[in-house]
C-alpha cells in the first residue's frame, strides 16, 4: 500500500493478533475508575487510530465497550464505528516509538507517586468539548468515542 508505519499487537496467549497502520490520531493517559478497574493497574496508556487503520484476527469478548481475550484475559483494542483504541501495552514492540501521550485524563485520581507528563495537557475529567471539537466537531465522552448509546 504505502510506506506508512505498521505496528502489530496481540494478547498474551497470542489468540488475537492485530495491526494498526500509520500514525495515531492521538495518544493519552487515563486515570479514571474504569481504566483502573479494567486494567487492574494505576492508569491506562492508549493510542487511537482511525477505524480503517485497524485490522485484527481472533476471537474477542467485550464488556461495556471494552474488548479482551476470552482465553487469557488481556485487554484488546476497543473498536468503534470511527476509531480504534489500542492499549499501548498490547503492542508487540516495547518501548514504542512515536507514541507519546499528549494529554492526561481524570488527573484527580492519579497516584501520588506519578507526576504529570511535562508536555501533556491535563484534564480534571474527560476531554472538553472544545478540545475534542478539533477532532470531529462534536463533544465526546473523553477517550471513549466507541461507547455506544447503550
Ligand atoms: Zn489471549
Ligand atoms: Zn479512563
UniProtKB/TrEMBL annotation:
Molecular function via GO: carbon-sulfur lyase activity; metal ion binding
The UniProt record lists the keyword Glycoprotein: no
Family: Belongs to the Gfa family.
Region (Disordered): 118-150
UniProt lineage: Bacteria, Pseudomonadati, Pseudomonadota, Alphaproteobacteria, Hyphomicrobiales
Organism field: Mesorhizobium tamadayense
Protein name: GFA family protein
Basic and acidic residues: bias regions: 140-150
Pfam family, one: GFA
